[in-house]
Design a protein that fits this description.
1348 residues; alpha+beta; five-stranded antiparallel beta sheet; 36 helices; 58% helix; 10% strand
């Protein structure tokens, strides 16, 4: 099996089991499982990861550990399925079935490093639980922990994870709301750019720090700001922008002090590299645009290094930078099996910034974008002429065919509809676009080609490619498509000679190129070979013409098409660079570089392109190792810091295999290209022959040669691990490495009327001629190997690395989670392969093994001594002039106590401390200094809070004293006002209480009188009701007599009261006379009267006024009470009406009961009729039997008579028994009827008594009402003066008359109801008695009727 996935499993003994875990899977009985589990009930099961052929690593718990004493090498584990397993993993069913069956796996410890199973970072059953934002924070760091940490964050829609300075971006395959909005961009700008100002030299933190150490440690002192910042692509772009002016960070990393930044974005196809680069560029452009807006004094006139022709504003530079993306995507991206918008070229983008010190020196907001440039690498020209099943060529071809019909006709009439209703050409009309294989689909559901065409044209116009230049570009694309439509067939004269068999397509190509068709055909179907100088022709070169076969002609067309597309792509990139205001002197500017290159690629069949891509990734991997380890290796050795084995991460053997001067792969391939008969098989043979002996030339362990390989195949172990093995197929390696177009085709292209093609190919020919002339002048033969594609790429890669080497490098590794493009789902094996190929395991090891942060001893003691207890701080006091050894000792004591809870971390199965003390400074592992800074900030924040509390306490005491004095005065005034108010309220309350008390006593007296009179009335009614047989007429006469007596008593009472009022009337008359006398005296009073007379008259007036005022108040009070009583009488009248309605309802119920009795009577009558009919039938039967008996006696003999008599007697006996039975049943019915009659009689009597009581109560209530009315009238007339008394008496008289009329009406109605009710009761009683008598008589008659 040549696949890399298969070789990865068999290559490294420390990473995969020798025979697979599935071979060790055993099904143990349930009893054995219970026995094993019962032995571990009291022990906590260890949570680990175990290897799995399908999922790479799966979580499990140890149910039976290995016995060290017995030398047991096997461990029994049970797989634990995480809670989110079904939603987050591709094909989750097998593991779930295994867990459900509770199967036990037997694991060999020898298959794992250090004979230990990798442990989980928690004891939960769901992977690593809380996923870490930085993988270096994992306590247990290994491949399984990294996998499940990424899986957990991917499932939570958190695509970004940090590995030190590396950002891991997992393609989420969905748009996450709020992840890329303006608020998120501003957040990272505020936290990482605007707040990252340099520390002033006179700040508190810088006191005591020497000048030599200050610049070195300034960047590290602010690492605490990184805490709690979620990893994001905007974090990388913000740090890169901030690093432009942060010189100390560059010095701290060991790079040049230029401040240039580089962001390397890598990953396999489908991992999201293109989108990530777009996000970074867009964010940087937005920041730069904002910076230029803030720094309005920035202008191109102040930068003489900018060329005049490229002097444009920052906003326009930003706009052109953003417009580059759609153009590059159209000409350089294509749809592949893994990705719908895969970049098929490498791109190195440089963004140039002006960080002039005049713009807020040191502030990153002073960096303004002034230009950009783009360099391209490894354009996949082969995709122009062929692509695999399910893939497409470059987007621009499909966008051209999807353009509006008018625009296509302007470009070339052949793209429009033909004559006679011939439709316009489609994708299927061009061979280069439809060669997607059987079952392929040239269209894309994920690409809007019409929209892409519009964006591409707008982008080209932004860079000045318009009008005729734009038409020439698109006509060049049409030429490429038309080259693919040419067909060739063997000639009739010679089968080895090919001719064009599609003259119509050749004619169309001739019109497009502007070259005669015969010239095009000759250039494609033949070759001119130079045979040297011909002396017979004045030493002219002798050439011969060789005809090509059909296969060679097709290859010629393909080669010309690929070269034309490469020249078009290069022209576009060159034009963009010219129009993007690239600085003429880049030395005066700083740059942020973005490298978007293919990630490490492994396919089922790996060809020349994959070798170039993987070679580039090897160089970048070495760059990462150099940046993060080699650069500080010397410093570690000088400081005495222990280093781990560097060979574990060094990939120099792989590069030696590829780049060896004479025996490297590139050199061997170049030699085959130079050799006249060089072939792919001879290249592979030489390569394997040179490296067939282990441990000799060039460390041949990196070259893999297997017996199953074909003569074209060879394998390479990439990176520093043996796990990444790629098998390459070397077919066409020599041809593709040569990358040469025949001179005949070049000359034919130079004759084209298309300006773009003619200029490009002519420039290429001129450069070749100049090189030859230069070689003749210098007599130095140019090596042909330097023109090989792989050698050219090596030179480009060296130049690229030189540019990157002088910058601060940051890395973004893109990961494709699954091949089905499903969100929140992770393919374990696919992810593990990418982790290995991206070098993340090595990166994590470097991050954990190295010490990225360092501080001098005195800085550590000054900054972090505050974290110790006061009792222990004397132990870390080095004195006034300490020596280095004393500083080291105190620092070691300080850190050991401060970091006692975090003094161990696990790295590769071994324990490591988070810091190391060198000779002159302390080195911190990743995350350690951030923890110290965070604790220091918490302590300082607490101290500041304490100071604030004390200050606030003092201010509060002072304010309290002032407030106390003001409060005392305020309280005094408030108590005075409150006392006055309380006195008035108490006075009013006492008066109200007295009124209420008097009212209560009066009401109580009235109630007592009402109850006394009511009891008398009840007694009288009760005595009146004793005699039930008194006729109604007598009752009426008694009632009338009673009413006359009551009225007479009331009249006599009024007479008594009138006699009592006589003194009051006399007094009133006397007062009236006195008033008249006073008025007369006042009229007679002369002006000269004495003062004594006036005072006497005034005293009499005051007495009269007091008298009238008192009586007026009493009169008003009496009037109010009278009105209140009237309202009460109205309420009582309503209650009486309700009682009358209740009485009527009871009467209606009695009527209903009478009707029910009538129905019962009818039923009894029907039953009696039935009884009578039965008795008459029985009598008839008896009579008939008697007659029959007498007749039979007279006719038969004595013996017969006796037998017949016996039968008749038995029959008569039977009839008697039936009669007795019927009589008994009738007797039971009669008893029931009697009981029912008694019950109804009793209920009627009770109801009659109830009605009588209600009538009595109504009469008593009437009497009480009359009495209250009379009392009210009496009270209302007391104590009034003559005129007022007359008015009130008249009103009372009229009201009394009205009330008396109403009472009489009610009394009449009650009398009528009583009469009606009495009559109805008498009638019902009489009817019931008569019915009962009749029933009794009938029953007696019927009961006696059956006696014999």
């Amino acid at each position: 099996m040549s696949s890399w996935w298969a070789h990865r499993g068999a290559a490294n003994e420390t990473n995969t089991p020798s025979s697979g875990d599935t071979d060790n899977l055993q099904t143990i009985s349930q009893d054995d499982v219970k026995e094993v589990l019962s032995e571990k009930e009291e022990q906590e099961q260890e949570q680990v990861y175990v290897k799995d052929d399908r999922y790479g690593w799966v979580p499990a718990s140890v149910v039976r550990p290995a016995s060290v004493e017995e030398g047991d090498d096997k461990v029994s584990v049970q797989v634990q399925v995480p809670m989110d397993w079904e939603e987050s993993v591709t094909n989750p069913a097998p593991l779930m079935e295994e867990a459900e069956a509770q199967k036990i796996r037997s694991i060999r410890l020898s298959d794992y490093p250090g004979r230990q199973l990798p442990r989980q970072n928690n004891t939960s059953n769901s992977g690593d639980g809380q996923a870490k934002a930085d993988l270096t924070d994992l306590k247990e760091l290994h491949e399984a922990a990294v996998l499940y940490n990424l899986k957990e964050r991917h499932f939570r829609s958190q695509p970004y994870t940090r590995v030190g300075d590396i950002l891991v971006a997992v393609n989420p395959y969905k748009w996450i709301d709020g992840l890329y909005d303006k608020q998120k961009q501003d957040y990272y700008v505020d936290r990482l750019i605007l707040s990252n100002n340099p520390v002033n030299g006179d700040s508190e933190d810088s006191k005591g720090i020497s000048d030599d150490n200050f610049q070195e440690s300034r960047h590290d002192m602010h690492l605490w700001e990184r805490i709690h910042i979620e990893p994001h692509v905007y974090e990388t772009s913000s740090r890169a922008y901030s690093g432009l002016t942060d010189v100390s960070s560059v010095q701290n990393d060991g790079n040049s002090s230029s401040g240039n930044q580089t962001i390397l974005v890598s990953g396999q196809s489908g991992a999201g590299k293109t989108e990530t680069v777009k996000l970074v560029i867009t964010h940087l452009a937005t920041i730069a645009d904002s910076a230029s807006t803030n720094n309005t004094d920035l202008s191109t006139s102040a930068n003489p290094t900018l060329s005049d022709e490229n002097e444009i504003g920052t906003h326009e530079v930003v706009q052109k930078l953003l417009e580059c993306n759609p153009v590059f995507e159209a000409f350089g991206n294509a749809q592949t099996v893994r990705n719908d918008n895969s970049s098929r070229f490498g791109k190195f983008t440089q963004l140039w910034f002006d960080c002039d010190s005049s713009h807020n020196a040191g502030a990153p907001t002073g960096a303004s974008l002034v230009g950009s440039s783009h360099e391209t690498y490894l354009l996949e020209k082969t995709r122009v002429v062929q692509h695999n099943v399910g893939e497409r060529s470059f987007h621009i071809f499909y966008q051209l065919l999807a353009a509006p019909q008018e625009e296509k006709t302007k470009i070339w009439k052949g793209l429009g509809p033909g004559k006679h209703d011939v439709p316009a050409p489609t994708i299927e009309s061009f061979a280069y676009l439809r060669t997607c294989g059987e079952g392929g689909n040239a269209s894309s559901a994920h690409q809007d080609d019409a929209k892409g065409w519009k964006e591409t044209v707008e982008g080209l116009e932004t860079f000045g490619i318009t009008g005729a230049g734009q038409r020439s570009l698109f006509r060049a694309l049409c030429i490429i498509l038309q080259l693919g439509n040419l067909q060739f067939a063997p000639s009739e004269d010679d089968e080895e000679r090919a001719v064009c068999s599609s003259p119509k397509e050749l004619k169309s190509l001739s019109q497009l190129m502007g070259v005669d068709a015969p010239l095009i055909e000759e250039a494609i179907t033949s070759r001119k070979l130079n045979m040297g100088l011909d002396k017979s022709r004045n030493n002219d070169e002798e050439t011969i013409k060789v005809h090509l076969n059909t296969q060679s002609c097709r290859e010629s067309c393909n080669a010309l098409a690929k070269e034309i597309y490469a020249q078009v792509f290069a022209m576009i990139a060159r034009t963009m660079n010219e129009k993007s205001a690239r600085p003429a002197d880049p030395q005066n500017f700083k740059s942020i570089n973005l490298l978007d290159l293919f990630g490490f690629e492994v396919f089922d069949v790996n060809r020349f392109e994959q070798l170039c891509i993987n070679y580039a990734n090897e160089r970048l991997q070495q760059k990462y190792v150099m940046d993060n380890f080699i650069a500080v290796k010397t410093e570690y050795e000088e400081e005495g810091i222990d280093l781990f084995d560097f060979s574990l991460i060094d990939n120099k053997p792989v590069l030696a295999l590829l780049e060896g001067k004479s025996i490297g792969l590139i050199s061997i391939l170049n030699d085959e290209c130079i050799r006249p008969r060089g072939s792919d098989t001879s290249f592979v043979f030489k390569l394997k022959s040179i490296y067939h002996k282990p441990n000799e030339i060039g460390n041949s362990s990196r070259l893999v040669s297997e017996r199953l390989h074909t003569p074209y195949e060879f394998g390479i172990k990439h990176f520093a691990s043996d796990a990444v093995v790629v098998t390459y197929n070397a077919e066409n390696f020599v041809e593709r490495n040569g990358d040469k177009v025949a001179d005949d085709l070049m000359q034919c292209a130079c004759l084209s009327s298309n300006g773009l093609i003619r200029a490009s190919f002519q420039y290429k020919l001129d450069m070749a001629v100049q090189e030859l002339e230069q070689a003749e002048k210098t007599k130095v033969r140019k090596k042909k190997s330097s023109t090989a594609l792989l050698s050219q790429f090596k030179v480009q890669l060296e130049a690229l690395l030189d540019q990157i080497r002088n910058s601060r490098t940051r890395y973004i590794r893109c990961i494709q989670p699954n091949s089905e493009k499903l969100p929140q789902v992770l393919d374990h094996q696919l992810t593990l392969n990418q982790l290995a190929s991206a070098g993340l395991e090595i990166a994590i090891s470097i991050s954990r093994e190295t010490y990225p942060n360092r501080l001098p001893y005195n800085v550590v003691l000054e900054r972090f001594a505050c974290l110790m207890d006061l009792s222990d701080r004397h132990s870390v006091n080095p004195g006034s002039k300490p020596k280095t050894e004393k500083l080291k000792e105190c620092t070691d004591i300080l850190l050991s106590k401060v970091l006692k809870d975090d003094n161990e971390i696990v790295v590769g199965g071994r324990i490591a401390v988070p810091y190391a003390c060198g000779k002159t400074r302390v080195f911190f592992r990743s995350g350690c200094q951030e923890v110290l800074e965070s604790r220091r900030m918490e302590l300082l924040s607490g101290a500041a809070a304490t100071i604030q509390r004390w200050y606030q306490t003092l201010m509060s005491h002072r304010g309290f004293k002032l407030a106390k004095l003001a409060t005392s005065r305020l309280q005094a005034r408030w108590r005075s006002k409150s006392a006055q108010k309380a006195y008035k309220e108490e006075k009013a309350a006492i008066a109200t209480l007295q009124n209420r008390t008097r009212s209560f006593l009066a009401k109580k007296e009235v109630q007592h009188r009402k109850e006394e009179k009511a009891s008398v009335l009840i007694q009288s009614r009760f005595r009146a009701g004793q005699n039930r047989h008194v006729p109604v007429k007598k009752l009426k006469q008694a009632a009338l007599l009673l009413q006359r007596n009551i009225r007479s008593r009331m009249i006599s009472k009024h007479a008594d009261e009138t006699s009592n009022r006589v003194p009051m009337l006399v007094e009133a008359a006397r007062r009236n006379e006195q008033m008249k006398r006073v008025q007369w005296r006042m009229a007679k009073l002369a002006p000269s009267s004495s003062q004594g007379e006036k005072d006497e008259i005034l005293s009499e007036c005051f007495g009269l006024l007091s008298y009238y005022d008192t009586h007026l108040h009493e009169q008003r009070l009496d009037t109010s009470n009278y009105r209140q009583k009237l309202w009460e009488e109205e309420r009582v009248s309503k209650e009486k009406m309700g009682r009358l309605e209740i009485t009527e309802a009871a009467l209606a119920a009695s009527r209903l009961e009478a009707r029910r009795s009538e129905k019962e009577k009818k039923k009894l009558q029907s039953r009696l009729k039935e009884f009578k009919a039965g008795a008459s039938n029985l009598k008839a039967m008896l009579k008939e039997s008697t007659n029959d008996l007498a007749a039979d006696v007279s006719r038969t003999s004595d013996a017969q008579k006796s037998s017949e008599t016996t039968k008749l007697e038995a029959k008569v006996k039977k009839l008697k028994e039936e009669l007795d039975t019927e009589r008994k049943s009738n007797k039971g019915i009669i008893n029931k009827m009697r009981a029912k009659y008694k019950h109804r009689t009793k209920s009627m009597k009770a109801e009659n008594d109830k009605l009588k009581k209600e009538l009595d109560s109504i009469e008593e209530q009437h009497a009480a009402d009359i009495r209250r009315m009379m009392e009210a009238l009496d009270v209302a007339g007391e104590g009034s003066i003559a005129s007022t008394d007359y008015t009130i008496r008249s009103q009372a008289t009229s009201s009394d008359q009205t009330q008396e009329i109403q009472l009489r009406q009610q009394q009449n109605r009650l009398d009528e109801l009583q009469t009606k009710y009495t009559a109805e009761i008498a009638r019902l009683q009489k009817a019931i008695d008569s019915r009962c008598d009749n029933c009794r008589k009938k029953i007696l008659v019927e009961s006696g009727m059956f006696k014999f």
